[in-house]
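<given_protein>
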Amino acid sequence: PTPRASLKADQSHSAVANMISMVNAALAFAGQHAVLNGVARATAPVMQQKSQSVPFLDRPAALDGTMVGDVGFDPLGISSGIPMAWLRESELKHGRVCMLATVGYIAVDMGIRVR
C-alpha cells in the first residue's frame, strides 16, 4: 500500500479506538442494570449519606438529625459505641460545670472570698 493509504488506515483505526474508549467511559457512569420482565433497566447506585460537617466522611448511623445541631460530626466514631442519650446528658452536665467554673474564676479574680 501507498504511504497515503497506510496513513488513512491508521487514522480510521485511531478514530475507532477513540470512539470505543469514549463509549466505555460513558458506560462506567451508567450504574448497575437490573432485568425486570425481560427488559434491562438501570438502577440508581446505592450510596451512603455523607456528613454535612465533614463532606468526605460517611454520616454515622446514630446521628440521624433528630437532635438539635446534629450535622453528622463524629470523626472518631464515638456515637457508634455509646448511647446518644447518655452523651447528650454528659455534655449538658459538663457545660454547666464549666459555666460555674467561669463564674468562680471571675469572682476570685475580683477579690470575692468565702469565709
